[in-house]
Design a protein that fits this description.
273 residues; alpha+beta; Jelly Rolls; 4-stranded antiparallel beta sheet
């Protein structure tokens, strides 16, 4: 065996699969924390609704049997605000997939300053998000999205992703389809190539939002509850002031060498030498 190595030998299987597919589904690394987050979400829901849905038969995936569509967005935003007010929320969320995030993005990380909350009730026309690419609306193409459900997600109550091999062709047709019939027309063109990712409770998905992704009307008989937020490498480009470092993104990890590098300043008279 040769003692000489190729840099390719240092690529993990996760990295190779991510490059091939544009996403990875992995088991949550902190199941206890995920269970506690689910319980906390249910507790907040009961507080917001004066316990009128607090009974032994209630579960998040059956929430549509208790909640009505008119109130669900107000409840979603209230839960979002409450959870994001807790100092433990973002570090706990990171702990659910720390290994895979660091493997795919790196160890010097920034994280979105808020974690988004989504509720998709069956047949709710207002909750679908047609396939899109985040970078088209000013997001950094260097980021990844960590998407974690509180319910079993499958078929139309899950997330769909267009594989990398089909993405380029679809984007070439995007402008024409939008002109001819809007997002619905574009969706029809790519529907048969979309992958509906199965993400059971206790698992999470990390994906690149440079691929077309989204969700449609939930045709299952289960309500979907999910969270998502963005991570990127600290020193990759930021594409707008609104989505910049210190506002939209906050540092969560820096390498020890970077710590000293950022603190270093040359002696007076030695600048630039």
């Amino acid at each position: 065996m040769s003692i000489f190595q190729s840099f390719e030998n240092f690529e993990s299987e996760n990295s190779k699969n991510f490059i091939k597919n544009g996403y990875l589904v992995t088991k949550c690394e902190n199941l206890k924390g995920l269970h506690e987050l689910r319980d906390k979400t249910i507790k907040i829901l009961h507080e917001l609704t004066d316990d009128k849905y607090n009974n032994k038969d209630f579960s998040l995936d059956r929430a549509h049997l208790s909640l009505n569509k008119r109130e669900v967005n107000d409840i979603r935003m209230a839960i979002y605000s409450r959870l994001n007010s807790y100092d433990w929320f973002r570090p706990t969320y990171f702990s659910f997939a720390r290994t895979i995030v660091e493997d795919i993005i790196g160890r010097e990380l920034v994280m979105q300053n808020r974690i988004n909350c989504n509720i998709m009730m069956p047949n709710d026309e207002g909750s679908n998000i047609y396939p899109h690419i985040d970078s088209h609306s000013g997001e950094s193409p260097f980021q990844c999205v960590l998407w974690i459900p509180l319910t079993d997600c499958h078929d139309s109550n899950s997330i769909c992703i267009l594989p990398p091999k089909d993405n380029h062709v679809a984007l070439n047709n995007f402008k024409r389809c939008m002109k001819d019939g809007g997002r619905e027309e574009f969706f029809k063109k790519v529907e048969d190539k979309l992958i509906w990712v199965n993400v059971p409770y206790g698992y999470c998905i990390l994906f690149t939002p440079t691929l077309l992704h989204g969700s449609v009307v939930n045709k299952t008989k289960e309500t979907r509850w999910s969270f998502n937020t963005r991570f990127k490498a600290l020193f990759t480009p930021y594409y707008s002031q609104e989505k910049g470092l210190g506002s939209f993104y906050l540092p969560i990890r820096t390498a020890p060498a970077t710590y000293f590098g950022l603190k270093y300043s040359p002696p007076i008279g030695m600048e630039g030498k």
